[in-house]
Amino acid sequence: MITVIGTGTGTPLSADSLRSLSEATLVVGGRRHLKEAAAKAGLPERISRVVLGPLAPALDVIARHHADEGAGGVVVLASGDPGLFGIVRALAGRFGSGALDVRPAAPSVAVAFARVGLPWDDAVVVSAHGRDLRTAVNVCRAYPKVAVLTGPGAGPAELGAALADTGLRRTLVVASALGDPDGERVEHVSPADAAVRAWPEPLSVVLCLDDAREHALVPRTVAGRGPGPARWALGEEEFAHRDSMITKFEVRALALARLGPRAGDLVWDVGAGSGSVAVECARFGAAAVAVEKSSDGVGRVRANALAHGVDVQTVHGSAPAALDELPDPDAVFVGGGGRELPAIVTACARRARRTVVVSVAALDRVGAVREALSSAGFATGGVLLHSSRLAPLPGEVTRLAGTNPVFLLWGDRPSADSRPPQGATQ
C-alpha cells in the first residue's frame, strides 16, 4: 500500500500514521512536511526522502519503489485533506485507488471557515495552485462565499489586485500556516490592501466574502454552488427597463445557449440596457460585466442585479473605448452599438476567448457584423428570430401578437484556440 497522510492543519498524527512513517523506506512530501515528519516521528536516516516539486518525477520514484516487492512501504505527506484538489487524484490515476491508504487531516478550507465562525456548505471552493488564476478571480466575482487554494503567483496579492477595481463588495480573509501554534495568522483585508502587501509562506487558503451575503439562512441540501437557476430566459416584466428597450426573452434564450455561461467564466454584456443578459449569465454562475453608456441605464442594471440576487460589475461608458481596461472575457453579448457596431464587434472578437453573440435589428448591419466575426477567425452562424406570442382578445379568445424580428449572429473561436491572440489583455 501507498500510505497518504494529511498533515499541517492542526490535526495530530495518529499512532498508526506515526508507525507508518517509522516503518517506511520511502517518504515523499514538501520540504516543510518532511521537516515536520522528521520532528514528530524521528525518521531514521535509512529512509529515502523525495522533496515534492514537479509531480511526474516523484511519481516515477514511487512507481519504481512500489514495483519492488522487497523495497518496503511508501508514505506520501500532503497538506490537510489530500483528496481535496490534492495528490490523491494523481496517485489513484497512476496506481489505482486500491493501492492507497488515505488518512486525511482537516481540510484547510474547513479550518479557515471555522476560524471565522462561518459554515461552508454553501461556499464554492476553487484551486489556483498550478492553475490559471482567472478562473478563481471570476468565481470570486460571481459568488458571495469562495475559498481559494493558493499557489505561487496566485496568492492574496494577485487575487486582490484582480478584484480591487471591480466595484464589487468583497473582503479577503487570508489564512496563513493554519494549525501552527506559533505561526498561524487569520487576517481580514480589502482586495486593495491585499494587493500591496507581501504575504508570508506558507499560505493555506484565502476566503473571498461578500459580508452582506455570507450568511445563508436557508438550510442547504446540495453543497457548493447549488443546482443553478430554476428558470432562465425570464420575462421582460421581471426586469426594470425603458420603453421596451430590453432583449426579448425568446432572443435571450438562444443568446444564453450560444454564450454558455458557467462558473469560472467572464461574460461581457455590451450595450447592456437593462442588463438582462448580464443578470441571467450571473444567475448561471458566470462573472458578468455590463457596459452601458447612459447613466440611467447603469442604474437599471444595478437595480436588476440586486433584485435577482447576483453581482454584476457595471461600467459606465461607450464601447469600444470602455472595453480597454476590462479583463478578457470568455464570451460576449453585444446588444447595442448603432453605427459603431462593426468596430465594437471587432474589439470584442479580438478579446473573446470563446464566443461573441450579437443581436441586430437592422438588416443593413448584418453583413458588417458577420465580416467582423469572420475576420477575427471565428466560425460564424446566425438566425432571424420572429416570434408570435399568445395574447388575449375580448370574449375569452386568443390571438397571435407578433414581435419585431431580430437577427441573432454569433462567432465561435475554433476549439483548438480558445485563448485571445497573443498580446491581448489578461
Shape, per Cα inertia axes:
elongated
Q: Runs with pLDDT <50, length 5+?
A: 420-426
Question: What's the alpha carbon Rg, rounded to whole Å?
Answer: 26 Å
Strand composition percent: 15-25%
Query: For the largest beta sheet, what order do the strands appear in spatially?
Result: 13-12-11-14-15-19-16
Number of strands: 19
Category from helices, strands and their pairing: alpha/beta
- Span between N and C termini? 44 Å
Assembly form of the protein: single chain
Q: Average pLDDT value?
A: 92
Give the proportion of residues in helices.
Answer: 25-40%
Number of helices: 13
The description of the largest β-sheet is: 7 strands, mixed
What key attributes describe this structure?
single chain; 426 residues; alpha/beta; seven-stranded mixed sheet; five-stranded parallel sheet; 29% helix; elongated
Question: Which helices and strands, and how do they pair?
Answer:
Elements: E1 2-7, H1 15-23, E2 24-29, H2 31-41, E3 48-51, H3 55-67, E4 73-79, H4 88-95, E5 100-103, H5 108-115, E6 124-127, H6 133-142, E7 145-149, H7 156-163, E8 171-176, E9 185-189, H8 191-195, E10 203-209, H9 249-259, E11 266-270, H10 276-283, E12 287-292, H11 295-307, E13 313-316, E14 331-334, H12 341-351, E15 355-360, H13 366-375, E16 379-385, E17 388-393, E18 397-402, E19 406-412
Parallel strand pairs: 1-4, 1-5, 2-3, 2-4, 6-7, 11-12, 11-14, 12-13, 14-15
Antiparallel strand pairs: 7-10, 8-9, 8-10, 15-19, 16-19, 17-18
Descriptive report:
This protein has helices spanning 15-23, 31-41, 55-67, 88-95, 108-115, 133-142, 156-163, 191-195, 249-259, 276-283, 295-307, 341-351, 366-375, and strands at residues 2-7, 24-29, 48-51, 73-79, 100-103, 124-127, 145-149, 171-176, 185-189, 203-209, 266-270, 287-292, 313-316, 331-334, 355-360, 379-385, 388-393, 397-402, 406-412. With 426 residues, it is an alpha/beta fold. A 7-stranded mixed β-sheet has the order 13-12-11-14-15-19-16, sandwiched between helices. Helix 10 links the parallel strand 11 (266-270) and strand 12 (287-292). Helix 6 packs across helix 7 (156-163) and helix 12 (341-351) packs parallel to helix 13.
